[in-house]
Structure formats: C-alpha cells, structure tokens
Description:
Blueprint lengths: L1 E4 L4 E4 L2 E3 L2 H9 L7 H18 L13 H13 L3 E11 L4 E11 L2 E8 L6 H12 L4 E8 L2 E6 L3 H20 L3
Helix pairs in contact: 1-5, 4-5
Amino acid sequence: MFKFDEVNHTYTLNGRRLPSVTEVIRSNFGDPFNSREWYMQRGKALHKAIELLCQNKLDWSSVHPEVLPRLKSFENFIKDTNSEVLQNEIRTYSKRLQFAGTTDAVIRMDDIMYLVDFKSSITPEVDIQLGGYSILYGGLIKLMAVELRDNSYMLKIVKNQKHAERLFMCCLQIHNFKLTRGE
C-alpha cells in the first residue's frame, strides 16, 4: 500500500520508506531549491491555493498576502496561455525503481499535454526534477517548469526529456549508492 505522510512529507510503499524526487536531487546537489522554512511554508501555501483554485473551492479571503501575488501570476499564466489544468498534486511512485514524488500539475496548452512543476525560481536542477516526475508519470507527456513571481511568470520547457530522465536516473543511482555506505 502506497502512503504519503503530509506532516513529514515522506512516502512509504508497504511500510518501506521511499525517497522523494526532491530528496534524491538534494542528496546529489545539496539544496538547490532554497528550502529554508519560510520559503517552504510559502510554497506549500501556494500549492494548496492552486489546488483549491483548480477545484473551484478557493476562498480568496483565506489567501495570505505573501502568496496572493504568486497565485495571481498562476491565474495569469493559465489565462494567457489558454491552458487547462487536468490534474494537480499527483502523488505516485515507482515500484521497480523505489522512489516517489508529487507532480504539481498536468495541463493542456495548445493541444499539448505538459507535466508542470511550479517554482519560486527556476534553477538548472529543475530539468532533473522534471525528469524524475516524468519517469513516475510514464514519460508520455512534455515537461515544463513555471516560475511564479510576484505579478509575473516565466516558462521553461524541457527540450530533451530523455536526457532529463537519464540525469535523474544517475542521481537516483548515486543516492542509492550513498545509502549503502550509510551516508
């Protein structure tokens, strides 16, 4: 049975802990995603607001002022690109490869399906992160990062999806090697 512990942000499969996509990347690169507590809480609140907005359940008065400009940027991104959110916050795992993750969204834009990760800032490691999510999702759709800034956004489409997947697999192998050494 696959489970996600919201409090500790951990995944388990039949009682065995699985590393997350982000955890695998951190074990290789340190913390490229700026995971200081304040930023993590703002990101968590933004992701929840996006999820509720996509479900037409968002109470706008509940949105924190620090999150509001980025949520408006998300709204503008969807409107400007004429995109449709098909799924969001998709938790999945690979039984064969023994890792898990939560994909932010699957959208349709210009009749093309994209697996999307929403970011506060796009770092070079985002291709590797999206490569991991692509493996979890089956590698069937294109990959995009959307940087949500205060009152603006920026898109980054991964040009070489197979390369991104291979890079993630290298990171996963190194992560697993480190575990065997007790690191």
